[in-house]
Design brief:
Blueprint (H helix, E strand, L loop, with lengths): L2 H11 L4 E5 L2 E4 H17 L7 E4 L5 H13 L2 E4 L6 H10 L4 E4 L5 H7 L9 E3 L6 E2 H6 L16 E7 L7 E6 H14 L9 E4 L6 H12 L3 E4 L5 H10 L4 E4 L1 H10 L13 E5 L5 H11 L2 E8 L4 E6 L1 H7 L12 E2 L4 E5 L12 E6 L6 E2 L3 H7 E2 L2 E10 L5 E6 L4 E3 L2 E3 L1 H8 L5 E11 L3 E10 L7 H8 L11 E4 L13 H9 L8
Parallel strand pairs: 1-11, 3-4, 3-5, 5-6, 6-7, 10-11, 10-12, 12-13, 13-14, 26-27
Antiparallel strand pairs: 1-2, 8-9, 9-19, 14-15, 15-16, 17-18, 18-21, 20-21, 21-22, 23-24, 25-26
């Protein structure tokens, strides 16, 4: 099973059905199919071959779907780039991926593209909406034939996506996702979720397509022949308008987005969400208060989703029935991320790899056909994370007697803020370069709006000072905005054990003292 085969099935049987609704445009399955053929033929003309990387720099737009389908046709690998990163961070990913071509098909990121180009390989072909020193996207596309692409046999185990996730070394790693991984996710979701996507249903996608939560929620309804209302980025007013006007059936967002909708959209309680059947949320748990408010407004099924880029997205979910029980005498269920979806195995192990009994805390491991192929060109990291088919999540957890998974803490240092993964070492590497900083550690602390937020713990050099605003300004050119710490705490000395290892748990402990667990 291949992505383009499923897409072609729908485009041949329902060619005029709406595939994407985007900024007032209605794009049919036939139109996206034709564009994907042009791109595939154009890539071949550019010399792109099997297993070559095709980088994509844009906000959510129809071209992302067409490029991914085109890559499927020729067994290339699509690499959506995180446009929220600073230019040096994007350049690192572009170079690490060894991209053979860069597509920038919208005008939203012209400034970023301008900063990026001097940092990238000068020989890299760039096809962009802007014609400033690069080949224009529409002109390039007009030269490409829309004839069928005759390719060699393509394996279901061929890579189709390479999404970058931050790592404990401070450098992002490319997670290689196969066609088989995508269809394992598709099958698991189709079996596990009560409301199914298909011809005649509509999904709203506003999560960024460089995340598995964005590209996954774009691809799955399309594979089922549904219509996707695609947003370039998240805007609470626009989401509410389209939920109402386009009669959306399904939507995935993060709790911070739910909060923004409820807090910032005027008279949201008077809007008509009668068509919405299910709302999936992930990246962080939801508070009881926020859930109660959201259920009163949206009046639909809620699923909490847990997954990773390495698991191709959701592999554990808390069902609508679980949410109902949580609000009717079992509030502890909201502290669980749920139970495994169809086709997913989980276990908790100790540091020696021994499986632990119910209620015992250890590292959560996950096995399914959706588990990634590998980290790109990272053999040691792959061997550490993927062992005998099991993904080591880096999350400590317990599994109760009913199979519910309760996350306790992160074995690794990752911070999850508003659905974005942040590794402290990235921030520490930048702050250590500040002339006033003698020692630095960054930890995640509770944040009502985003779940967690980075806190910079700094030891100053003698006779030096540093304000929060000075810290923010220093980080701005080197880090994505969401990674920049807005909170600063000055220490005389940072806590370390006798061997010199930094004790981040000691730094975090006071901030999490009133919380049942050490993640939010």
């Amino acid at each position: 099973m291949l992505i383009h085969q499923f897409f072609d099935y729908h485009s041949q049987r329902n060619p005029e059905q709406a595939c994407l609704l985007f900024q007032g445009q209605t794009l049919s399955y036939a139109a996206i199919a034709a564009e994907s053929l042009r791109i595939a033929n154009g890539l071949r003309t550019q010399g792109i071959a099997s297993n070559d990387r095709v980088a994509i720099l844009c906000e959510n737009c129809p071209e992302v779907l067409a490029i991914v389908i085109a890559c499927s046709r020729i067994e290339a690998v699509a690499v959506p780039l995180n446009y929220r990163l600073a230019a040096p961070e994007v350049a690192y990913i572009l170079n690490d991926a060894k991209a053979k071509i860069l597509f920038a098909p919208d005008m939203a990121l012209v400034d970023l593209l301008g900063k990026l180009r001097p940092l990238a390989d000068a020989a890299l072909p760039v096809i962009a909406a802007s014609a400033d020193g690069v080949e224009n996207w529409q002109h390039w596309l007009s030269k490409c034939a829309s004839t069928p692409v005759l390719g060699d046999d393509i394996s279901a185990d061929a890579g189709i996506l390479q999404l970058y996730t931050s790592g404990t070394t401070g450098k992002p790693k490319g997670v290689v996702t196969s066609q088989r991984n995508i269809f394992a996710l598709y099958t698991s979701a189709s079996t596990s979720l009560k409301n199914k996507a298909g011809p005649g249903t509509r999904d709203l996608v506003c999560a960024p397509n460089f995340h598995i939560g964005g590209i996954g929620t774009l691809l799955l309804p399309i594979l089922a022949g549904a219509t996707v209302v695609l947003h370039a980025s998240f805007n609470p007013m626009a989401v509410v308008d389209d939920l109402e006007n386009h009669k959306i059936d399904n939507m995935f967002i993060v709790p911070a987005m739910i909060m923004a909708i409820l807090d910032y959209v005027p008279n949201v309680e008077q809007r008509d969400f009668g068509s919405l059947r299910q709302l999936l949320y992930g990246a962080s748990p939801i508070s009881t208060g926020l859930l109660e408010r959201a259920l009163k407004i949206f009046k639909c099924d809620f699923y909490q989703c847990y997954g990773m880029t390495e698991t191709t997205g959701t592999i554990v979910s808390l069902s609508p029935e679980d949410h109902s029980r949580a609000l009717n005498g079992q509030p502890e269920l909201l502290q669980s991320c749920g139970r495994p979806q169809a086709g997913v195995e989980v276990k908790v192990v100790d540091t020696s790899g021994n499986t632990l009994a119910c209620g015992e805390t250890g590292e959560l491991l996950v096995r399914s056909e959706a588990n990634m192929l590998r980290y790109y060109n990272r053999e040691a990291a792959t061997a550490e994370t993927l062992q005998d088919g099991w993904i080591h999540t880096g999350d400590s957890a317990i599994i109760d007697e009913h199979g519910y998974i309760f996350l306790r803490d992160r074995i690794k240092d990752m911070i999850v803020s508003g659905g974005e993964n942040i590794y402290p070492i990235e921030i520490e590497n930048v702050l250590s370069q500040h002339p006033a900083v003698g020692d630095v550690a960054v930890v995640g602390v509770p944040c009502a709006k985003f779940g967690e937020a980075p806190l910079a713990c700094i030891v100053l050099k003698p006779e030096q000072s540093l304000s929060e605003q000075e810290m923010v300004d220093f980080c701005r050119e080197q880090l994505a905005g969401y990674k920049i710490p807005r909170q600063l705490k000055i220490f005389e000395v940072l806590p370390r054990n006798p061997s010199g290892k930094l004790l981040k748990k000691d730094l975090r402990a006071p901030f999490w003292a009133d919380h049942e667990r050490g993640i939010n």
